Structures are given as structure tokens and as C-alpha cells.
Amino acid sequence: MNIKIALSRHVNKKNKRAIIYDCSERKYRKKISTGLYLDEKYLKNGKIFINEKTSSSTSLRIILVKLKEKKEKALNLYIDNKWTYKELEQHLKRGINLYSIEEYVLNFFSKTKNKITLNDYINVVKVFKKHLKKENIHFNDILKSGVLNTFKFNAQKRGIKNTSINSYMKKMGVIMNKAHHDGLILERFKIPKFLIEKEYSRKKKINYSRDKLILSVNNCNDIFQVQALSIFTLLLVCGGMNPSDLMNYTLIKKESKTLINSILFDLNHDYMKFKKSKKGLTYKYIKIGYSIRNIIDIVKTLFIITHYKKYPFIFASFTDKNKIFDMNIYDKSSLYKNIWNFYQRKLREVSSIKFSEAKSIYQEYLKEIEMTKNTSEIMFGNIKENEILKIKNLSATMENIEKAEQDVLREIGIDEINQIIINKLKLLNLDLNNHSFKKCKTPLEFSKMLKKINRYHKGL
């Protein structure tokens, strides 16, 4: 018996050829489809050609290896068990055992995702396994008719919210379509529209005011609660940034002498720069004036007190006054999540607000301020850097931005909140006037300050 891995002569409408097993022995000849197809672009002089630079080259190599393994196994079983031609054909028609979806996500899908996103997609696969009651799921399992219905029904029975179910199915769709792009499944994966339920809910008004924040500070019983409110205050006054922005923002220092910096920024101050949204291409720029510098100092000092002893590697240099962290949140994803989950709980103990609401609250303050269109677009982060340079009378726009920033900070009441936080910490036996790191200029001074605050580590 001779079995070859070959390609069908027929080209389908999608310009693909079926991969087949070509079996022959004496007068016997049978061509058996593997159920897999190959794009014409992978053919060169009638043979399969794999370009190492293509995104799907790795998965294609896996398919060919699996097909070869199947062929060798079929030959051995045919000889050892003295199979009939029909038994051989039935064995080959079962196809190859490709990677489970979980293995695919771990080994191939992961190459284009950071650790946090990867863990999210691995969790999606685990959720599907749980609600489909399978130890492993393969691409064909998800492609079967009615499987998504079964998944949704079982998930709903276990009390999973429709918004979560929608999210799980959409992310599974991302995985499946990446597998289609890599040549592991033939058709693009589509989720039936009726399975994705739209949520019609009124936008919840955020229950926030300066007085409520101040009351929350006064009600704090420990340093961690004050720290959580200090973090929220920092996120709020810095344009409504996210915790991930706080860990990753770029610091544009006043010493920077680039052309764009000299045009856009007041070079007497440092600026924060971070993306308006995770997938967006526009940035927000926050001038670090006196009030913002004070809340940065409070947050950095508190974090050094609570975390430096155990996690010194997460901090920016003590000489970098306007930068708190120097940590890759994707490499340290578990630590990053643990930190923010902990502080969100501490925030919840004394307030109804969430870190994620800082952006909406800041924007509500912005809407109350009268601004020109250009000023508004820059303040809301709706304009790209190169487009800012095209604005006529840019100097006047920069003056308007300065005024708008000050108006927002005044409405938020940042100076009052900073002072109340400092006063509350004094009542908790921590006087930041005596324990601030902003005055440290040498490693020796920093080391002495660490020893001075060491007594606060007890119980932290």
C-alpha cells in the first residue's frame, strides 16, 4: 500500500484546493479528502511551498506534520491488522486530531497578544469547556450547529449575565476567525445575530461630588483607605486616566527640546502623556502643575510605604519626582491585577465610586466649561498630535487650554482635597510633611527616609 499526501486538481470558488490522501495498491486507487484546504498561494511548481514570513506558516507546518503522522499510522495499522480497503478508508476519513482550541490559543494565538489579554482569552476557552461540559474543545465542536445555543442556555442556567455571555461569544469569535486566517478552519466564523442580546439600560448617573469625596476621606480608618481615595483623586485630576495609564504614562520632561514639545507645551513644566483609550490613536497631555505634583507626591509616598519593602522593582527612580511606577503591567499582570483589585476593595469600603468612573466624572466637569472647538478636542483627547500643529493661532488655543485645565481643577477642588488627605493621614499618625520623598536627592537620603518610614510596614 502506498499513501501520498496530495492536492486535488479542482480549485474551489475561494481559490483553494482540497488536501487529500492518495491511496494506491495494485489495481486499487482511492482519493480521500482530509477535510482541509490549501490556498493557491502556498503552491509553487505544483508543490506545497511554505513562506516562513507568512502569519499562517506555523499552523500550516503543524497541519502537514499531523497529516504525515496520520498517514504513517494508517499504513502501520493496515499492515499489522490486515485491514481491508474499507477499514483503511474509514480510518483516514476521520481526519487529523488538530490542537484543541486551548492549545491553539496558548501556542499560536498568544504571539499577537500581551499576557493580560492572553489570560482573558484562555479564560474564555475554559468557560466554554465548563458550560459545554467538555474536558477539551476543538474547532469542530464550536462549528457544530446549535453549540452556541447550548453554551448560552447552560450559562444562563448558572446565572451568568447576558453581557458576560455576549462577551464570551464575541471573544470566541475572535479566536475562531484567527484560526480561519491561519488556515485551521475553512470558513469565517459568524455568530448568529439573535444570540447576541442587546442590553437596553439607562446610563447610570455617577454618584459623585467634592463634598462626598471629602466625607469619604474623613471616614477612613486606615492608610489603605486614604491611599485608595488618593489614587482616585490622582486619576480624576489627570484627565480621568485609568489605573493602567497611571502605571504606564510617558513623562515628557521640561528638559525635552523637540520641536513639537516647544510648540505645544509650557517647557517650565513636565507633562503626562497617555492614550485616550486602549485601541485609540489619540493621546491626552496633562500638565503637571503645583496641585497635580502634590497629589503625585502623596500617592508615590504612600505606595513606597506600603509596597517598597516587598516590591521595590515596580517603582520609578526616587529622583523622578513626577513618575510613580516603572513596571511592565503585561509581564507582571498578576501583581498588577492584585494591586488594583485590592485598592478597588478599599475604595468600596468608604465610597460608592470606582476607579473606572474617574474619566466620566472628569468629562462631566469639562462639559460645564465654555470652550472653543479646538480647545475642546484637545482637552477631550479627540485630536492627533500632528493635527494639533495645523491649528491656526495655536498660541491662543494653548492659552485657552491652560485656562480650561485650571477651571476643571478648581471645580474638582484639588487643593482642598490634597490638604484634607494630608490632615487625615496626620490623624492616622503619618505626617507627610516629615515623610515625603520629594526632598530626597541622593541614594543616602532615600535610604534614610526608608528607614524612617519602616515602622509603618507593620501590619501592611
User: Topology as H/E string?
Assistant: EEEEEHHHHHHHHHHEHEEHHHHHHHHH
Radius of gyration over alpha carbons?
A: 30 Å
Structural class: mainly alpha
Number of helices: 20
Distance between the termini: 73 Å
Average pLDDT level? 83
Could you characterize the architecture of this molecule?
- The chain is mainly alpha-helical and 460 residues long.
- The chain has a three-stranded antiparallel β-sheet, covered by helices on one side.
- Helices cover 51% and strands 11% of the residues.
- Helix 1 packs antiparallel against helix 2, helix 4 crosses helix 7 and helix 15 packs across helix 17.
- A hairpin with a 2-residue loop joins strand 4 and strand 5.
Give a nutshell description of this structure.
The protein has helices at 57-80, 85-93, 101-107, 115-132, 139-143, 147-157, 162-181, 210-218, 223-237, 243-248, 259-264, 290-307, 333-350, 358-367, 373-379, 385-388, 394-412, 414-427, 432-435, 443-453; strands spanning 2-11, 16-25, 28-39, 43-44, 47-48, 250-252, 271-275, 283-287. With 460 residues, it is mostly helical.
